[in-house]
Amino acid sequence: MVISVDGSKRKEAARERREQRRREVTLLWALPYEPHQRWLDRLAPRAVAVVTGANRGIGIEAARQLAYHGLHVVLASRDAAKGQEAAGRILAEAPDEASVSVESWQLDVADAASVQAFAAWAVETHGGIHVLVNNAGVNFNKGADNSVEFAEQVLKTNYCGTKRMIDAMIPLMKHSPYGARIVNVSSRLGRADGRRNRIGIASLRDQLLNDDRLSEQLIDEMITKFLEQVKQGTWSSNEWPKIYTDYSISKLAVNVYTRLMARRLSDRPEGQKIYINCFCPGWVKTAMTGWEGNISAEEGADTGVWLALLPQEPPTNGKFFAERCEISF
Length: 329
Ligand SMILES: NC(=O)c1ccc[n+]([C@@H]2O[C@H](COP(=O)([O-])OP(=O)(O)OC[C@H]3O[C@@H](n4cnc5c(N)ncnc54)[C@H](OP(=O)(O)O)[C@@H]3O)[C@@H](O)[C@H]2O)c1
What we know:
Elements: H1 2-29, E1 48-52, H2 57-68, E2 72-77, H3 80-93, E3 101-106, H4 112-126, E4 131-134, H5 151-169, E5 180-185, H6 202-209, H7 216-232, H8 245-265, E6 274-280, H9 297-309, E7 320-322, E8 325-327
Parallel strand pairs: 1-2, 1-4, 2-3, 4-5, 5-6, 6-7
Antiparallel strand pairs: 7-8
Helix pairs in contact: 2-9, 4-5, 5-8, 7-8
NADP nicotinamide-adenine-dinucleotide phosphate is lined by residues 52-53, 55-59, 78-79, 82, 107-110, 135-139, 157, 161, 185, 187, 280-281, 283-284, 286-289, 293.
């Protein structure tokens, strides 16, 4: 009984801290970025950003905000018509249409051929890109469900799709003294050691959180093991995250892969730097949550856009953020 009272007080205090931070961030929106922060203004022609899954939700809002900041934004969408419609909406709703530059292109992150075709188009059309926002994602669980029926699709899209885009876009990322940026849209549900939703296998948790033991093989083996258990009907929520298990594992994989890639990319020479970070947008009113959530897609996109625009000094690399603050993995 005493424990549950303490638990609910802790939960209440954490909720209050989050709310406070949201209020602070909302105030920050009103402040323009300082000229010295705006590395993109020193590039001509405009910096090019790609946002995946950009036809709706957090993706279209990230695309809109980046475009309003002056980047040329490619809305990558698996349904070409929906992508075109979203780009048209951004232009039509812009306060100053002439200053906004957007276009759309077909991209299914779960399809290797589609990613290759997209990469070829991006090189041919723009000579490369400066910013990649890996936003495309799926979650088939709603409310209190915890079904793993679509586990393979969830992992193929959220983790393998993100990884595939990173692999395909790194060679295309433009060299500049300001560095290029990769932002992965992830989730607090994917924390390896989250209080409510962590990996139950202590040894795996420790390896995932230890930079010397973390490897691509470890992440891929974790996923293969989970999917095999799903196929055999032997998976247990004692071993894996308890809430939205398949989705949480996919975002955990994205988080730790972000850390791994940051380490791999960190020895690139000056002028060829790529900074990679991930963030949780919060609980957002989009199709994914059945428009429940407690913040708008516009608010949800904010931290991702902020990460994409961060100056190169001091370097921000391999970190996890929410509400523009670093949080633990
Ligand atoms: N909403 C939240 O509370 C919340 C919380 C934490 C993290 N996130 C993350 O935020 C990101 C955006 O989610 P959202 O809330 O904006 O959901 P959403 O409205 O359902 O949008 C998801 C987007 O991803 C696209 N997509 C799905 N599979 C794709 C594929 N294979 N290739 C390309 N695009 C694909 C969808 O395209 P279609 O229209 O073609 O389906 C859609 O544009 C996701 O990564 C999600 O996991 C959301």
